[in-house]
Amino acid sequence: MHKSKSDIRKEVRVRKQALSPLSISAASREMCGRLEVSPLLRDAQIIVAFWPMKDEIDIRGYLIKEEALGEKKIYLPVITGDGVMEFRLFEGEENMAQEPQFGIWEPTSKEVLLPDEVGDKKLTIIVPGVAFTEKGVRLGRGRGFYDRILCAFEGATTIGVCYNCQMYDELPTDPHDKPIDVVYSI
Hints:
Elements: H1 5-17, H2 21-37, H3 39-42, E1 46-48, H4 60-69, E2 73-81, E3 84-89, E4 96-98, E5 105-107, E6 112-113, H5 115-118, E7 123-127, E8 131-132, E9 138-139, H6 145-152, E10 157-162, E11 182-185
Parallel strand pairs: 1-2, 1-7, 7-10, 10-11
Antiparallel strand pairs: 2-3, 3-6, 4-5, 8-9
Helix pairs in contact: 2-4
């Protein structure tokens, strides 16, 4: 019998709670290192990523390093309304504010990345998720933010990042669920 999306979300929450602070820290450092050498990111001119929530793999080290280099534009999500998310320019940790609904840290920049402004620039999106498969099937938190974003930025290269405990052989899907290109799990 196949598990429901809800059951998998609960199961992953328990799995992540079992991770030690030391293993979380080590996995996050390793993931940042993997992102630094990824050819999918090395060639990108624009990176769309996320500032991790407490239970997500921490890629802040990578984002801070890339922003300091100044060679690529980095955009992070901002929740602008019920079910609406946009990406604003990341201009360093000091230019972030915590939004009240989900407690997510967001950039305060006014510069928004719009799909029709990407043009021929190489865009790579680093996508969070609750669970993934090796084939790029992704289970999110259930609000559909990233499925809508992946539709809007069609043609972008997409990378899912997660802990090994978030990987599954198969996941339930719906017609609106958008697969990603590659998953990096640690």
